[in-house]
Specification:
CATH architecture of the largest domain: 3-Layer(aba) Sandwich
Radius of gyration: 21 Å
Number of strands: 7
Number of domains: 3
Structural class: alpha/beta
Largest sheet: 5 strands, parallel
Shape: globular
Mean pLDDT: 87
Strand content: 5-15%
Strand order of the largest sheet: 4-3-5-6-7
Low-confidence stretches: none
Order of helices and strands: HHEEHHHHHHEHEHEHEHEH
CATH class of the largest domain: Alpha Beta
């Protein structure tokens, strides 16, 4: 069984840790355990409860009223929320709940239903990407089991590949972007999403995939002369040195522009080489795609 920290609950629900502690004191839906060092830990059921309660609270229900509801009533009230954004958040929360319970069939059903209603483009932007942003912190802190990560990643990866295969643009942009993940990085989801964005806007994409040595990137870049190289760094191996990677890139491919997105780009604080451009949030990625297309 997973054990989540109060920071995990904060990141996944959007409720501040201070507020969660107040809820514990006043209401009955949270009874965290304590480690030997007195750190709170929460079960899967408590995580799911907080997700549901936070959603209802965000859209107008008072916590004191929610606390008196049975689980069935909470679910009914969530499903009946009329706000479009609320329903998108509900679906993301359902995906998180299916993930922690290893319910791959229901998780895939949620995605397939949304795709049939909204199409793959809106499913990616409205559901898949917010879901990945929420659970990404759990991957970094090892608060989900690797089996959960692999199962979820493979399902999402399959949907993205279907979206990429079906992506089409009436405009043919005469520009090429080479996508790759460096050695030590195997999380393809963010890079596949970028692939989808570029292809759907008519940009030519060279996709090398995950865990690629820079010498191989250099070989393809010298042969194909792309306008940009692009990587998305989510959760690399512990021995990965980002600064060393950037320096080696500059030595091998210093005349080629490199775009870096993902959590590591957000967290990096040292000086960045002139030919390297960080995209620290999804709107900045959108701006880059719009700029080259």
């Amino acid at each position: 069984m997973n054990a989540f920290t109060i920071k995990d609950l904060e990141n996944l629900s959007g409720i501040k840790a201070h507020t969660i502690r107040i809820w514990e004191q006043r209401y009955n839906f949270l009874k965290p355990q304590r480690t030997q060092t007195n750190i709170r830990t929460y079960t899967c059921d408590e995580l799911k409860a907080v997700l549901n309660i936070a959603l209802l609270n965000k859209y107008g229900y008072k916590i004191s009223h929610i606390d008196k509801m049975c689980p069935e009533e909470i679910r009914d009230r969530i499903v009946s929320l009329g706000n479009v954004q609320a329903q998108q958040e509900r679906i993301v929360n359902e995906m998180i709940q299916h993930m922690v319970d290893l319910e791959t069939g229901p998780l895939e059903d949620v995605l397939d239903n949304y795709i049939s209603l909204r199409g793959i483009d809106k499913t990616i932007t409205q559901v898949i990407f917010p879901f990945l942003e929420k659970i990404g912190i759990l991957w970094l802190t090892n608060h989900i089991n690797p089996a959960q990560e692999h199962l979820v990643s493979n399902i999402v990866r399959q949907k993205l590949i279907v979206g990429i295969e079906g992506a089409f643009s009436h405009v043919n942009v005469n520009k090429t972007v080479l996508l790759f993940l460096p050695e030590g990085e195997n999380h393809e989801i963010g890079l596949l999403y970028t692939y989808y964005l570029l292809k759907s806007r008519g940009v030519n994409v060279l996709y090398l995939g995950a865990n690629v040595p820079l010498k191989d990137v250099e070989f393809v870049a010298n042969l194909k002369k792309p306008e940009y190289l692009y990587t998305h760094l989510t959760s690399v191996a512990h021995n990965f040195n980002f600064e060393k990677f950037l320096n080696e890139y500059t030595l091998r491919l210093g005349t080629n522009n490199l775009v870096v997105s993902g959590l590591l780009a957000q967290q990096y604080r040292k000086k960045v080489p002139e030919n390297v451009h960080f995209k620290c949030c999804l709107p900045e990625v959108f701006e880059f795609v719009a700029m080259i297309s």
